[in-house]
Amino acid sequence: MENEHIVGKFDDDLDRIKNEILEMGKLVKKQLQGATNALLSFDTDDVDALITTDRRINGMNKTIFRHAEQIIAMRQPMALDLRLALLATSIASELERLGDYAKSAAKRVRKLTESSSGEKTLSLIGEMSRIVQEMLTEVLMAYKKNDIEKAAEIRVRDIDVDELNKKIQKTAIKSIREFPEDTETLVHLILLARNFERAGDHIVNIARQVHQIVTGEDLKASN
Amino acid sequence: MSMNGSIIDTKNLDVFYGNKQALFNIDLEIEEKQVTSLIGPSGCGKSTFLRCINRMNDLIPICKITGKLNIDGQDVYDPSVNVVALRAQVGMVFQKPNPFPKSIRENVAYGLKINGLTSSKSELNDRVEWSLKAAGLWNEVESRLDDPGLGLSGGQQQRLCIARAIAVRPRVILMDEPCSALDPIATAIIEDLINEISQEFTIVIVTHSMAQAARVSNRTAFFHLGELIEVGVTKEIFTNPSNEKTQNYITGRIG
Predict the structure, then answer these.
(1) Shortest distance, CA A76 to any CA of chain B (angstroms)
(2) In angstroms, rounded to a whole number, what is the distance separating the alpha carbons of residues B10 and B147?
(3) What are the pLDDT digits (tens) for A146-196?
(4) Complex-level ipTM beyond the 0.90 threshold
């Protein structure tokens, strides 16, 4: 899409921040994966490690902010370059929030009791998490390649996540009626699904920001 | 987007230096009492365009101009136009401050005298004072108006040149890289002054500093290889230009 800068170091600075976002995104995806694995196997062994890694993700968000600040102060970017620097901080914040959702999902696993009444709900959550993780991979690709078509597909894909969330709620409520003794676990599952649904929304925000970097158009504002 | 209506407009303006064409088919409207920046790489024709407005290019024998350039609907290149009167209407400030080797007072009074614009000594003094105040220089020079203009600092000399330009109350002030020989503080003072005087005058400024164009102007026109590529509201040009050449230029990319 864009040509190289006359000052090569400027490209290096922008590349660095892009790579940092991609690294952060990969780590967030691993967190979502880890939280989902813990959930599906009722295994809390990795929860502490997931919480520790979340602190690292928070640190990456701060580093990206600092590097964006340096680009703005030292290079006075204009137009596309300014959006690359500014929106890097927004995307990093969205990823940081996604990390928080993974962390709180992992922590919630500790509160669950394994029971057959939640199996169907759980498998739907597993399906939902898989879609969210795919969306995250796709949005990182779209960001890497400034691909606004791919970013648009991700915004559409989120509808599936929302639908799944509704289905999970219905299924869980039905199970609560049938097995009132498992209410606590099923309520936790509803809240877990909500976590992944919110994660999908943050990925959509990133997809919008990719669109804004490339076109200058803020889809949220124009909606 | 026109707030005040255009004061200058060109149609199919071509400029040639001998066989070499410097401007191609320029259609540009410049709005009254606004600051318009002309930007673009060296040799893009922005200074040539600026110099067409007050017919400074007439001084170059091989220069040939075709097409229309109107100020208030009047064709500037019509044979009946008095060039001296035109230049009183369209003042100019250059890259290097160029005060006359005269006193501060005489520098500002010069244009008023040769154009016979004041009828008494007190009116002349009032106009000198008004101009120096408008140029933000009065407080620094009021006690030494008869000292030589060339004794001032670079930034002060440039403000003296601006005072000299506005003394005759032109409609338009052309500025050709007015800050490129000044330090950042003197530059900031001139930029603040441009903002002040644009309430009263139309300003067209050529600048190599994109940051300066972004700071001082309401509208920006981007020239490239003698063509006008894009003109628009400065905020748009510097955040989301519609032409790729403009984007490459303002972001410092290889075009």
Answers:
(1) 8
(2) 42
(3) 999 999 999 999 999 999 999 999 999 999 999 999 999 999 999 999 999
(4) no
Chain CA centroid to CA B116, Å: 23
A58: closest CA of chain B, how far (Å): 30
Q: What is the largest CA-CA distance in chain B?
A: 58
Helix (H) and strand (E) counts in chain B? 10, 10
User: Which of A4, A76, A80 is opposite residue B247, by nearest beta carbon?
Assistant: A80
Flag whether pLDDT at B126 surpasses 90. yes
Give the closest-approach CA distance of A220 to chain B in angstroms.
Answer: 17
- Residue B85: DSSP 8-state: H
Largest CA distance in chain A: 68
pLDDT for res A36: 96
Residue A222's pLDDT is 66
Could you read off the pLDDT of A108-149 as tens digits, one per residue?
999 888 888 889 999 999 999 999 999 999 999 999 999 999
d(CA A204, CA A16): 24
Residues A81, B241: C-beta atoms closer than 8 Å: no
Read off the tokens for B114: 């040769």
**Closest chain A C-alpha to B156 CA, distance in angstroms:** 28
Q: Where are the beta strands (DSSP E) in B182-235?
A: 202-206, 219-224, 227-233
Backbone angles phi, psi at B55, to 5 degrees: 60, 35
Beta bridge mates, A143: none
How far apart, in whole angstroms, are the C-alpha atoms of residue B50 and residue B71? 13
Size of the A and B interface in Cβ pairs below 8 Å: 39
Suggest the residue from B250, B251, B254 to mutate for an interface test with chain A (most A CBs closer than 10 A).
Answer: B251
Which chain B residue has the Cα nearest residue A1? Answer: B244
Q: Is A178 on the interface with B (CB under 8 A)?
A: no
Dist. CA A68–CA A213, nearest whole Å = 14
Q: Which residues of B touch A82 (CB under 8 A)?
A: 239
Count the neighbouring beta carbons within 10 Å of the beta carbon of residue A205. Answer: 20
pTM reported for the whole predicted model = 0.86
Using CB atoms within 10 Å of the CB of residue B140, give its burial: 0 to 12 exposed, 13 to 18 middle, 19+ buried.
Answer: middle
Q: Is B208 helix (H, G, I), strand (E, B) or coil?
A: coil
Residues A78, B210: C-beta atoms closer than 8 Å: yes
